Every structure is written in structure tokens, then in C-alpha cells.
Amino acid sequence: MGKVLLLRIICVVVLNAPRLRFFYHRSLKKILNHAKSQPQFTSLLFYFIYLFFVHIVVSHYIQNNYTIVDCFLERVKKQPNKPFLLFKDETFTYQDADRLSNQAARALLQNGLVKQGDTVTFFVTNEPMFVWLWLAVFKIGCSAALLNTNIRSKSLLHCFKCSGAQVLLVAEVAQPFQRFPMKICETCDFVNVISLACLKWRGNYFVTSYNFFSGTGFPKAAVISHTKLWRFVMILRSCGLKSDDVLYVSLPLYHSAGLAGVTGAIDLGITVALKRKFSSSQFWDDCRKYNVTAIQYIGEIMRFLCNTPKKPNDRSHKVRIAIGNGIRANVWRDFLNRFGNIQILELYGATEGNIILMNYSGKIGAVGRDNFFFPFALIKYDVEQGKPLRDSTGLCIQVPKGEPGLLVAEISVRAPFLGYARDLQQTEKKKLHDVLKKGDVFFNTGDLMLIDKDGFVYFHDRIGDTFRWKGENVSTNEVADVITQVDYITEATVYGVEVPGNEGRIGMAAIALKDGHTFDSEGVFKHLESFLPAYARPRFIRIQSSLDVTGTFKLMKAGLVKEGFNPSAIPDPLYFLDDREKKFVPLTMDIVHAVLSGKIKI
């Protein structure tokens, strides 16, 4: 009873804060009911205080036009000689980062490449120069469009167009850019430029950046506002990181998770150990080398680490916190058993989404917990029809606890959905109207989730034409478009299939050939290698005489997904992408067994 009373007092204080009343006006009763039924009251109270704190801080920052660059400059002033970035054998202090980003900004300005308010596109891998450039464009007062460095061909050109960028920054002028009519600035030219008085050039803008990611069709540019960026930044603070921590970032900086690591480090004034590309064999050696205390992950990273050969020094490290998303329960347990008592903080969210969940109590397998701050619902969804089920009144039907449903989050002033840059159609497609009551609008996450009796939320599956492999979202439509560029392939449908022991779904394509043509295994391999990143190339190909379609001529995938890639059960010819042979080879049961046992790495 005393615990509930304490929470009631906190709620009363919050509800009497005029500027925050709108945020909590519907929450008091739900908070109290929720608290009475939860055995883990301490973690619930902590999470409530965290959300309260984040809202206070973010609201203050936004109202005062306080940006991440302002925060960075304060860190430079207070701790100029503290290491900010560790990369290979180099150490860059906060003062170094300020000086080098000033040089980058001056180079852009003196060469007439940018002006305040422009959008600047990045095509740069994980390296210190990425951070200097990112800080530079913010100091000037520009927005940044962060490109996935794996994309190629039409997707790459599409991203340039929809970002509205005036300048492209690349580490080197590669062949894909030589025919594109944009200003190109090679980052290696910035080193000897005179320092910039940055405050003279900075400006605050609503849009800080565009983060590109794959979905249905071409990659879309999620709009990241200052408010949203600050919410990303606050994730590290909410996870209990302190000013003396060292954060290891091996996730791509063009991803919101990787960027949140660096910006969150600025907020806390901590040191970042930056890795150009994740390496399972070098991961723990790097952690020991840089005295890392916190790491970022996606589910695949944790599985890769668990699959490395065991070593006597597996527990010889200083890592105490792991922050990320997508770890499966069995991998979670294996990771803790092998590498020690590391606090794993599993998160759920989407770059463009309006909801963030945190598994603040460490329940293995859960992505978060039902809360009263971000109103959401799990609704019944017809996977075959590709739309939510509705009742006789036209409203969506909520699923009971323990059953999977489509996760949708209410769009409101405190939980906005900013959509995709220059793509109103895709923005509207992510909205669901009349969900729980007439006139409401919800964000469609595209994820099927379930909630247990204690309010813990679990990921179930993804819907639609996207699957996730190697930590990347793969657009089936985009891959199919590339495949059908081969002149003798008339149709292609792409889908993800499960491979036991692997996170996500691996790509498989069913194709139909023109009469009289045979499958050119080497030619198709070379074509896919030229136009698709490795994670998006289908590893299995199924050749059919024709592809089944619905009455509205949509390709049918459900049956194909269910049948998978078992040669003994599928009469059609099957092929497997062999990286060593650099071609597709006939799929045999021996190859299947080798894949399932892990002898063949995929």
C-alpha cells in the first residue's frame, strides 16, 4: 500500500505541473492500477521516473532551441582534453573533434558547396571523418541525409532525389557517382583548412537529418526532427550509462542506432570506441583494448559472438551493459552464460516510428513492457489479405493477451509521426484511421507482437513485403525488380524463409523463365553481385513454370514461404548461392544439412 501511495504522490506532483498536464492527464488511474498488479514495482517506478525525466529534459531543450551541437560545444568547453573518439590506434579528444569539424565546415563554405539550410548527403563508412562531417553540417545549419553505403544502382539514385540534397559527401569518388550531376566533395580534402568560428555559421532547423532504410519498394527517407533526435540521444542516459563509460559502436553510423550511440555519448560526455565494421573475431579484443564498458548490438551481433570458438578469456572484459534490439531468448541466455553477468537492455522502436519500448527489468525474450506513456494497441491482422480485421462498426479488433496482433501506436502531439521525405503516398500508407474510435489515427509498425499476462511485449513476426536479414531490412519488391532485369527471367517473387539457428529470414526467390531458356547460374550471380548488397541477394532460387497470382494479379507468397527450401519436398529445381564458386549451384540435401549444421555459413 505504501508503494502505491508513493506513486500517487509522484503522479500528483506531475499532474500539477501545468506544462506537463497534457502528457499525463489520462495516466494516473492506469499507473495506479498497473502498479498494484506488478510484482516488480521497483523497475516500474524507475521506468516511470525515466520517462518523466526524459520528457522534462527534451521539452526544455526544444523550447530553448538547444541542439546536440550546443551540447557538444559545452562538452568541448568543460572537458576539452577528454577522449571523445577512439579509432584503431588513434585518439581524438573533444577539442580535436571541434577543431576537425570546424575545418570540414570551413571547407564546405569556402568552396561554395553549401549554405545554411541546405541538405547534405553522406556516403561515408564508419570512420572519424563521418563524425566530423556530421558535426560540420550541423554547425553550418544544414540537414544531413545519411545513405546506406551498401546500396547501389537505382536505389542509390532514388535516395539522392528524394533527399533533395544539394551536395554529396563521399570518402572517395566511386564509379556510381561519376555520372550523377551533383556537387561532390571528397572528405580527404578537409585536413588543411583554416579553423571556423562555428557559432557564426550555425543555425537551428526543424529537420536534423534523413535516415534511409528499406521497406516496400525503394529505400525511404525517415524525417528526424530535433525532438526525435533528442529522444534517440536520451536512450543511453536511460540505460544507466555514466560519464566515465566507454561505448563500443560497431553499428553503421548511417543507421539511427549507430548515430544514437555517438550523439548519446555527446549528451553524457563519454568516450566512443568506433569500429569501421563489426568483426566477431575482433570484438572482445577491441573491448579489452579500449576498456569498453558498454556495447551496442542487434540480434545478429549477439548470435555471431556466441558462435565464435570459446576462449579462456571470454569473461575477461569490463563490459557491464549491452544496449540494442532483436536478441532472441536462447541467444540471450547463451550470451550471459558465456560472457558473464552483463545487463542486457533490449529496446523496440523504428527510425520513423512514434513508439519506443524498453525491457527495463531484464525479462529474457521481451522487447519491452506495456506502459501508459505511448498509447498503442495490438489488433487482429489478416496476413493473407494484408489488412487489419474490423468489426461491424468499422473499428479494429484488439487481440487478447497471449495472442499475436499488429502493433499500432497512436499518433498525437507527444507521439508524432513525421513520415517520409517527399513521399506523401508512403507516409499515408503507414497511417491507420478509425482504429479504436472514430477519427483516431495510429502508426502501423508493420510488426506482429504479443503481450503476456504480466504486460511484457514480445516480437512475433514482420508483415508485408519486407524481411530482416543480417540486421538489414530487405525489400522484396526491390530485389525482384533487380532479378527481372535479366532478360530471360519473366517473373520473380522474393520472400524470406527461416533457417534454424539464424536470426531473421534469408532471401529466396521463385522465378519463371522464357520458353527455351535455361538458368545461367554464373550470369545471375554476377548480375545480383553488381546491383545488390550481400545481405539482399537471395541465397535460394526456385524455378517454376509460372508463378501463382491472386484474383487481382498479386503474386502469392504464403505457400512458397511455408514450403521453404527442402529439395525432398519441392518438385521444382532449386539452386543455392555458393560464394566460393561465385555461382548458383543445384541445391542438394547435403548442402541443406551443411547449412542447417552451420558448416556452410550464410
From TrEMBL:
GO BP term, example: long-chain fatty acid import into cell
Name assigned to this protein: long-chain-fatty-acid--CoA ligase
One GO CC term on file: plasma membrane
Domain AMP-binding enzyme C-terminal: 478-554
Keywords noted in UniProt: Fatty acid metabolism, Ligase, Lipid metabolism, Lipid transport, Membrane, Transmembrane, Transmembrane helix, Transport
Reaction(s) catalysed by this chain's protein: a very long-chain fatty acid + ATP + CoA = a very long-chain fatty acyl-CoA + AMP + diphosphate; tetracosanoate + ATP + CoA = tetracosanoyl-CoA + AMP + diphosphate
MF terms (GO), sorted A to Z: long-chain fatty acid transmembrane transporter activity; long-chain fatty acid-CoA ligase activity
Domain AMP-dependent synthetase/ligase residue range list: 74-172, 216-369
Classification lineage: Eukaryota, Metazoa, Chordata, Craniata, Vertebrata
Entry EC number(s): 6.2.1.3
Keyword hit for Acyltransferase: no
One Pfam family it belongs to: AMP-binding
The family this protein is said to belong to: Belongs to the ATP-dependent AMP-binding enzyme family.
Entry keyword annotation includes Transmembrane: yes
Bilayer-crossing regions: 6-24, 44-62, 129-147
